[in-house]
Design brief:
By secondary structure, this protein is mostly helical. 66% of the residues lie in helices and 0% in strands. The protein has helices at 4-27, 29-32, 44-80, 95-100, 108-111. Helix 1 (4-27) runs antiparallel to helix 3. The longest helix is centred in the middle third of the chain and has 37 residues, at 44-80. The radius of gyration is 20 Å and the shape is elongated. It starts with a helix and ends with a helix.
């Protein structure tokens, strides 16, 4: 089980990443919206380019939402005192694994099956 200093460090790291995800999501809101025909741009390629940008922005938003859910779950585990403990076997998750990704919920053995 991680000590309180490590827990505080991971809580801060998770909160910072969550804030960055929310900011990025807000910044890309316009790109994910409905593609409208730009009267200044002529041709099918301009519309296709706009649709491609929209699809890429939507896919990125979905990945951010998935990461956000993992971060919120990790923060909940911190609040419940279960952070750093494998959800499958109950063993401690090595600190090095948590440093690489503080949202992991399983030890290496359980993650590998």
């Amino acid at each position: 089980m991680p000590d309180s200093t490590q827990l505080d460090m991971w809580r801060e790291k998770l909160a910072t990443e969550l804030h960055a995800l929310d900011t990025s999501d807000d910044d890309s809101r316009e790109d994910r919206g409905t593609v409208t025909l730009d009267q200044q741009s002529v041709g099918r390629l301009s519309r296709m380019d706009a649709m491609q940008r929209q699809a890429m922005a939507q896919a990125t938003s979905r990945r951010r939402a998935q990461r956000r859910a993992r971060i919120l779950a990790a923060l909940a585990r911190l609040d419940e005192g279960e952070y750093g403990v494998c959800q499958d076997c109950g063993e401690d998750i090595p600190p090095g694994r948590l440093e690489l990704d503080p949202t992991v919920a399983t030890c290496v053995s359980c993650a590998n099956g």
